[in-house]
Specification:
This protein is mostly beta strands. The protein has two helices and 16 strands. Helix content is 8%, strand content 50%. The radius of gyration is 18 Å and the shape is globular.
Length: 223
């Protein structure tokens, strides 16, 4: 169902790396996912992915992994951010990139959408100072459950919840429909424990998606 959409979106998303020095050597890891909104390096992600590393860390674009690795990497430049709504607009100094296409249609309960991003990344630094990484895209088809306004760690998300969780590393990833058009951005997971009649409990995890209209408005306000 989503094969054509994934083929269209794959070139638009990328992992966000951060790096910093410790006394025993450099540390490098992946904090989240970003996606391009024009062909000149302007991108959107969640603010918390750009503020999760220790003070003094730098954030980098290493290319459209796993298809392309660029060396040296490009340092990410901040354009604007809204920590209260967990939005970050950044830029990498590169042209001829593939931007997502925004949908003009509102989502409805039951609509099929697909989460995307770079969860479960494994990165280590080798003896020569380079790094070894297992960083792959992840696609999770799901469906819209209902509209929501959620507050997580003092951040307010206006959007909707979906039937699958947003794994760590997928925050900032585009959420798209079967036509490959942007319907929102994965931002967090809400977890609830529901008691059963037999005394056991069921843990329910649902991804939270920031609606595309808020992303569009944030871009228009800052560009």
């Amino acid at each position: 169902m989503f094969a054509d959409a994934i083929a269209a979106l794959a070139a638009s998303i990328f992992p966000i790396f951060y790096a910093y020095e410790k006394p025993d050597g450099p540390i490098i890891s992946v904090s989240g996912t970003g996606f391009f909104v024009d062909d000149n390096g302007l991108f959107v992600t969640v603010d918390h992915s750009m503020n999760c590393a220790p003070a003094g860390a730098h954030y980098y674009y290493y290319g459209n992994l796993p298809d392309e690795l660029i060396q040296p990497p490009l340092e990410i430049e901040r354009v604007a951010s809204d920590p209260g709504r967990d939005l970050y607009l950044g830029r990498v100094r590169r042209d001829e990139l593939s931007a997502v296409e925004f949908s003009n249609e509102p989502v409805r309960p039951g609509d099929s959408v697909c989460l995307s991003g770079y969860p479960m990344a494994e990165v280590s630094v080798n003896a020569g100072g380079g790094f070894i990484a297992n960083v792959r895209r992840y696609w999770q088809p799901t469906f819209v459950i209902d509209a929501t306004q959620a507050v997580v760690d003092h951040r307010v998300y206006d959007g909707y919840i979906v039937g699958h969780p947003c794994f760590s590393g997928m925050s900032g990833g585009p959420v798209f429909d079967v036509e490959g058009k942007l319907r929102g951005m994965a931002v967090a997971t809400v977890t609830r424990t529901e008691p059963e009649l037999d005394g056991d409990s069921t843990v329910v995890k649902n991804g939270i998606v920031l609606d595309r209209e808020h992303i569009r408005a944030f871009i228009d306000q800052n560009v």
